[in-house]
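Build the 3D complex.
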Amino acid sequence: MAKEIPYKIYLKEDEIPKQWYNVRADMKNKPAPLLNPGTGKPMTLEELSVVFCEELAKQELNVTDPWVDIPEEIQNFYKMYRPSPVVRAYCLEKALDTPAHIYYKFEGNNTSGSHKLNSAIAQAYYAKQQGLKGVTTETGAGQWGTALSMACSYFDLDCQVYMVKVSYEQKPFRREVMRTYGAKVTPSPSMETNVGRKINEEFPGTTGSLGCAISEAVEAATSQEGYRYVLGSVLSQVLLHQTIIGLETKAALDKYEVTPDIIIGCAGGGSNLGGLISPFAGEMVRGEKNYRIIAVEPASCPSLTRGSYVYDFCDTGKVCPLAKMYTLGSGYIPAPNHAGGLRYHGMSSIVSQLYDDGFIEATSVKQTDVFAAAQQFARVEGILPAPESSHAIKVAIDEALKCKETGEAKNIVFGLTGTGYFDMVAYQKYNDGVMDDYMPTDEEIAASLAQCPKV
Amino acid sequence: MAKEIPYKIYLKEDEIPKQWYNVRADMKNKPAPLLNPGTGKPMTLEELSVVFCEELAKQELNVTDPWVDIPEEIQNFYKMYRPSPVVRAYCLEKALDTPAHIYYKFEGNNTSGSHKLNSAIAQAYYAKQQGLKGVTTETGAGQWGTALSMACSYFDLDCQVYMVKVSYEQKPFRREVMRTYGAKVTPSPSMETNVGRKINEEFPGTTGSLGCAISEAVEAATSQEGYRYVLGSVLSQVLLHQTIIGLETKAALDKYEVTPDIIIGCAGGGSNLGGLISPFAGEMVRGEKNYRIIAVEPASCPSLTRGSYVYDFCDTGKVCPLAKMYTLGSGYIPAPNHAGGLRYHGMSSIVSQLYDDGFIEATSVKQTDVFAAAQQFARVEGILPAPESSHAIKVAIDEALKCKETGEAKNIVFGLTGTGYFDMVAYQKYNDGVMDDYMPTDEEIAASLAQCPKV
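Done.
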């Protein structure tokens, strides 16, 4: 007989995974390597270590070891806010009157408000181990910057954050959280870097983009002694750290003998999605099991569903290595009325390859539909979700309603990556009925993609 | 041998208490009854039921039953965000280099951001059971209003919130959270009620007070068919619901055979503190055990430490029953530079009586010291605390540092009632170094107390 499933499944503290899972080791088709934009050859450890902490550069290049030990200091930090619960959405199921069983892995119960802390603490740890003074980074919606501020404060590292201007202005309180944790926050594009000044000159009044903020943060890191650059998504090292999400999810579901039929995650740079699905995708690439995995992206930034799988620049300033990924072109900037994160032009190379190999589906959703789903979820499940996470909620609800039609009791699992407490400007727009939807034209995307490098 | 204590002690879902504990039943000296301001006689169930839901009025008057069953619907809602963890503050202990063992009961992991939801869902449930259309209430810092909005949305009840004007202006995003949950939010004093118009006329430009917002909400409830008034603190019914905090805390500590030496809670209206300490105070009033219990209040609103234990009005408009409590006088309004909640002029009659009988100590702290403690805590424990909760943090740190001097390994337990995500205006003031401290003069308090009714 199946065990009765509680509202929240918590692992025990000693069941928190002690290793991250590197799905690349099990993939037959490996993600394409990062290329040196100057030579066109794969980036070496030496080259990567100019920008990244050495241990993180090693993780970036590691496509052979399936398991990577989590250092004890990081394990201890994880214990402050992990394990995160897998929640059975009994109230949502009831509200939808669906036979589906809906589960979500909730990563929002920490002050950064999202899963970003899982990688922030790892990156801060390796920076500290290397004896660095500090790190630089970019942040879009502010979740990553907050997470990194917390992590740096814990290890007493200097933290310099370039925050996409539109978010900086829409989320003044995010800045104060970061300051409370001791970080220096600069709106991007700024006048503090060469690349920032250049972009401000070329595009006066620009509201910024993640690609641009990355360029500024990289310049700041490489122009200061004892600093390195850290990134909150896209990179394979980040996805590796985020596998803690999927490993905990799988362990929790296994305890109750629940096998997901559908696994849903929102996709911006791809690290949350990749982290959630890695253990499941691992079973798929090893030919052991089959799941339906759905990546959900905003209609205003549809890299998987409308982009091309090519080598592209990771940043607007073109100072970073080239990555092969589903991309809209490094110059692509979603319209300012797009709320929240998921605004990066490209997708994690791991997620891109899994998608290209058919292990993942992708779909895009409009933001007013996303906020409608967010509000519905908030009212019945009691958690005010982040706009990013609400993309996954929207599709989870859609799939649950399909089950209602067919009468199937599918197990639907989605990633609830964070809370929306700092997204109330966007919620206000939705509450006031003044939020609109934006979708780029095919011509806009083609023009942006035409700028990709020829490799 | 003592068991190793995890970072977070979680009860199992089926260990969530199924009854609230009514400490009044075990108190030898009962709290003084509420009085009818017209007749001077104890309020009857009939009289109370004009303002309050009937079942809640019964709970208000119940001084005999030690245990009150929690209805199943409320138990189910509790399962969405409870049990809340008892956290061992290993990182704070290390940062302070103290031999003390510090524990905190964390009530902030829900969208209302605080313990207020424990009573909100109970009050909404009883309103729904009674067939009401909706409820009215006041909110100060906004935690209560948010919690009630969530609870009313869950039970599909109309929710009208009068929000103290200073908080309404400092916390626009709180309003949007409430709106997302479907509530109507009005800054108080408003021009929508007689009492609001009167206060606006008498004190033009007033930033409002809880006492005034209460008067408006009561008037709104009694002037609309099918509405009742609900209150987020002070009342004995609210304290009763909040005993879920203390019961869970005691059960969690008992599991690891931990006996608190000191129990610390912040005190505004007293329901969080009372809820936390009730099971422990129960052992004390029954003569079974002894604990050191410390109520911490802001220096700018020091009802226990500088008020008088007399009958007073519960609201500025003098429409509510009289309560015997430690009070600063119903006209007392803390200076506008006082951040966050804990701004009510009086204290729960249960807490007042326990304090008067010597079962509780009280101390007051300055707000710059409170924010310094908040920042220290945030940086090492990873949780950005509410200003209210940080009053308890401040004293917990002080007590832990005393242990460092004496070498004692005391068990210090405090209530971390909520998170500060909507208090970033106050944090910004602190970060910018422009926050100041305010303490009323003896003359101000005496003048305010002189307005108390003669009973």
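The radius of gyration of chain A is 20 Å.
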